[in-house]
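Entry 14. Ran structure prediction on the chain below.
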Amino acid sequence: MRKVTPILQTLICYLFIVLFVYAAVSKLIDFETFQTQLGQSPILTAYATWIGYAVISIELIITLLLCFRSTRQIALHASFIIMIAFTAYIYIILHYSDFIPCSCGGILEKLSWEQHIVFNLVFVLLAYIAIIIQTSYSKFKISILLFTEIFIGIGLLYFLHISSEKTMRINNPFIRKFQPHAIDHPTNITLPSNGFYFAVAQGDTIFLGVTTAPLLLGTIFPENDILQIDTIQLDQMDLPFQNARIQVNYPDYSLVDGYVPAIFEGKLPSKKAYRQFENQAYFSRIVKTSSSNYIFRGQSTQTGENILGLQNTTTHHISFNTKILEKKWMESLIPMVLLLMILL
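Output, structure tokens:
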């Protein structure tokens, strides 16, 4: 038995290392979603920002401490406390919360909240076994110590909850909870490729463009269960398009490409579009503001800097504004500083 217990404790430590590393890495990979889930929490909303960083840091620190024999006992006690806190958090969410937020990320997301409690309790038991194996305290002392740690884990969670409620309701620092179920998904549509982008939404109808096939126009109808794809026909097809994109200002739509430059316009439901400009102005970005007006970002032929322009496809008028976009004086000094450093 004496030969088995050290192996058992080492195995438990390895399990905790795998658990905490996986949990921390999965949170870091999708940190924004993790913070959103904390923001949905009815217990920790006020501290969602820094608790996200704290939980990941604690998991990684405990993992590091578990790797060394000299700090392994401290790490096991810390693991016991944090698993108690996690379990208490889930219990409170299930029994005292008005709604249940999203679960953890990664594989653990597949578990229900009840299964998650069982999972956590198993690791609480494993931490308890590993502590008992290594400790030299009497049964009475270790019982007092573990009960104290249970009190610390639950008490810390209770303190955060009370403090968060006070911050949200009394101090009122304009922190708002994320809506738990702001959007329902009664139906969904699987798009045939990941190259789709939103051209516009008109009422319940959504228009989509496709980056890999710029002449395709997708339409999702109000029922939200049908995706219709049509092909736009241009009156001039021999242009060297590089970044053609569709913009819709219903019922008018445009296909634009600043590298040509070209603006083709049509009116739904017709899929025939006609070129309106002939090598008038190159642009790196353009926004359709009405049926015939566009605001675009171009480049000055004199200074080489970005400028804003306005063009109208009905009057064929183009005007530029060189004063709205101003170059920051610090950025203009960077080349001069680099040149002086090279010379010196």
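The chain has a mean pLDDT of 77. Will compare against last week's run tomorrow.
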